[in-house]
Here is the input.
Amino acid sequence: MSQGQTGAEQRLVTPGMAIGPSAGKRAGSGIITEQDTMIATQLGWLQEKNNTMSVHPIHSAYMPRSGDLIVANVAEVRNNLWFMDINGAFQGLLPMSLAPWKVEFGAARQHMDVGNVVLARVQEVDECHNVVLTMKGVGLRRLNQGAVENIPVQHVDRVRGDGNSLLQRLRDASDCRIMVGENGRVWIDGDSNGIAWARKALKMVANKGHTTEFEAILAEMEQEKKGDA
Amino acid sequence: MGGYGDVQLLREDGSRLDGRKLDEMRPVKIEAGILPAADGSAMVTHGLNVAVAAVYGPMEAHPRKIQRQDRAVIDVRYNMAPFSTSDRIRPGFNRRSREISKVTAEALESVVLVERYPRSKIRVEIEILAAEAGTRCAGITAAAVALADAGIPMRDLIVGVASGKIEDTVVLDLDKAEDNYGQADLPVGILPNTGEIAFLQMDGDLSPDEYNLAMEYNFKAAKEIHEVMVDALQRRYQGGDV
Here is the structure.
């Protein structure tokens, strides 16, 4: 919860709570305006940035946006496309034209089958929540090794830290490759000890990331890992 | 609800059999986030009623024929546990639980911003573990806290509360004896911040004056329960020191 009003105490708001007059301010995500009053619509921390009030939700479902880098599982295979589980309300669709291979009609299963994990990007999302994925792009591929850990979607930014600083610390300490998907799935690849440590660290970030003792706990975990190595 | 002339529900000093005043509510206790597997959950203890609500979703609505292209559907399942009353309740859906599930879903649909999740479904499970009159109200309150806990956007927290009439006197929050032998019952779903009514049912007869007094009691109780709801949500994440 590092975002928000610097120096000001964070305010936890609940749905229906009046935040204040809307005059001169814009309503961001998690806020609606009714009769010149801003009202919170979600449980979360109130933030003010660039004259825009918004609520950083404590819990939220993954809502895909165009351009998101995600870790997805193959849920269904058809002749010319794959349905992908993207950890959201709806499955994503990966047509064979957006796969990184030349796929013949009817041969989709030869390239990816149910249960395979991929690193993909959200190509487009329409107003009815139809999600189209693409695997054409640098680094987008099938993930053949490593492990996938789930974290709450609202903790994705926290796991990355400012300018990926925290993510880099986790990579260095665990000696693993770590990719954080916007959909709350984290791919970890390395030796088994490193993967186990990274999973433990991710759980700790999700549970303690907002507390004052977080830095001390992480430093201790890093020391332990160095000692083991 | 026709009233039973031979059952005394008010003492000679005007107080009720359990010692409450006419406009006094049974104690309410709420805990949010009690089920780790659910996206959101809550337990409401209202007098001797215990209601647990769990929320899952938003998820893709199945079967596809229930999908709405412009909004989410709220799928509510209200159920009383077989051990919730002294007479064992036969497990499974019955006429009463279907009706309560329907009115609860409609009440919740009026507060949840359903247009944010087209074609999807939000599943709300309400389980009554102990019943002592007023379970639909306890269930609605539990569902509202569970929805907020799940991060579902809502215009307001809806509060379920009831008033009624016993011995020609309007009282707040009927207990079991008052519900069984009283003359009227008026459960409502209130949005405390806006003062809107999201659902209203009436069993029995009330004169316009009695109705107005009952609604006055209901609005007063809704404010009190709303404070407990907000406190439960804040306590979970902030230790109650907001």
Remarks:
- The radius of gyration of chain A is 20 Å.
- The interface with chain B takes residues 11-12, 14-18, 30, 32, 34, 39, 41-44, 57-61, 89-91, 127-129, 154 of chain A (CB under 8 Å).
- The longest helix of chain A spans residues 192-208.
